[in-house]
Amino acid sequence: MKTPQGLQALIDDGVIDAVVRPLKSGKEAAVYVVRSGDEVRCAKVYKDMAQRSFQQRVQYQEGRKVRGSREARAIGKASKYGRKQQETAWKNTEVDALYQLRAAGVRVPEPFGYVHGVLVMELVTDADGFSAPRLGEVALDADQARDYHRALVREVVRMLCCGLIHGDLSPYNVLVDAHGPVVIDFPQVVSAAGNNAARTMLLRDVNNLTAYLGRSAPELLDTWYGEEMWALFEAGALTPDTVLTGRFTPEAGVVDVDGVRDAIEDARQEALIRQQGREAADAED
Q1: Catalytic (active-site) positions
Q2: In this structure, what are the phi and psi dihedrals at residue 116, rounded to the nearest 5 degrees?
Q3: Residues in CB range of 176: below 8 A, 6 or more apart
Q4: 79 Cβ partners below 8 Å, 6+ apart?
Q5: To which H or E segment does residue 35 belong?
Q6: pTM, two decimal places
Q7: What is the pLDDT at residue 27?
């Protein structure tokens, strides 16, 4: 295939040898299957964000570190230079998160480098060696749904123990390889300790997964893993090996129990809308 403009510099520098085919494309990035020596990998080419997208991502920026005072002031003023720095920080955040989470044992694609604004990483494959499907594309029975839910809750705990929250976790940001779920797409990752919306985003992530997998195993809809792990995290008692029960007793007047339950259905609807948006973006490309 014709080499995309964003990948030619990687070929020129010998980072990759050839582009095999497109893998997926969305509003924020296009991913290609590439060859590097004897290895088949994927390359994520980030797209420039419009002002609309920049504004929508403000809530995710809170608590993120900015490397220089000039950059921090520019970002705060939302100047042209500030927006450029914001985009750079946005891309770097995913790269940094992948390295950190991979080192902590979280099931994420292995990163192989970030060159010329392109993230080169592991191509996640299924048992037959083909590109792994997204969780939202896999037919599940009740036992599989329970197993995947258990595995994903454990991954969310490991991320939280690293001080990170995915921030946009859904069945369409999870791939399924021969060994189970692999979490992908981290440009919107949130600081658990530095973002005032961290708890809300954590609960949304867990509720997204629970709502989807609860279609196949309805008893999952009566679990409270997000609330349980956040309470332990706030108390400094959460570890990667903490055994969760899924049970949680909210303090009176502190947690809107009905609202949290309603949020599960809202999360399910949001996941469907996001998938429709991705399909529309794919059709445009």
Answers
A1: 168, 185
A2: 55, 40
A3: 126, 132, 133, 134, 135, 138, 148, 182
A4: none
A5: strand 29-36
A6: 0.80
A7: 76
How far CA 273 is from CA of 26, 206, 266, 268, in Å, comes to 14, 17, 11, 9
Inter-residue contact 166 to 253 (CB < 8 Å)? no
Dihedral (CA of 240, 169, 22, 112) sign = negative
Residues ≥6 apart with Cβ < 8 Å to 123: 23, 33, 40, 41, 42, 109, 131
Other CB atoms closer than 10 Å to residue 189's CB: what's the count? 25
Kindly tell me if the per-residue pLDDT of 273 is higher than 80: no
> Which stretches of 98-194 are assigned E, i.e. beta strand?
111-115, 118-122, 164-165, 174-177, 180-183, 190-191
Cα separation, 11 vs 19, in Å, equals 9
Torsional class of 14: left (φ above 0), alpha (ψ -120 to 50), beta (otherwise): left
CA gyration radius for the chain? 19
Distance (Å, whole) CA 201 – CA 273:
18
Cα dihedral angle (60, 134, 30, 187), rounded to 10 degrees?
20
Q: Which residues are 198's β-sheet partners?
A: none
Alpha helices in 162-256 (DSSP H): 198-213, 225-234
pLDDT digits (tens, 9 = 90+) for 78-105: 455 555 555 666 678 999 999 999 999 9
Q: 254 falls in which pLDDT band (50, 70, 90)?
A: low
- Please enumerate in sequence order all residues whose Cβ is within 8 A of that of 189, keeping only pairs 6 or more positions apart, or say none: 60, 93, 94, 97, 164, 165, 166, 167
Residues in the chain, overall count:
285
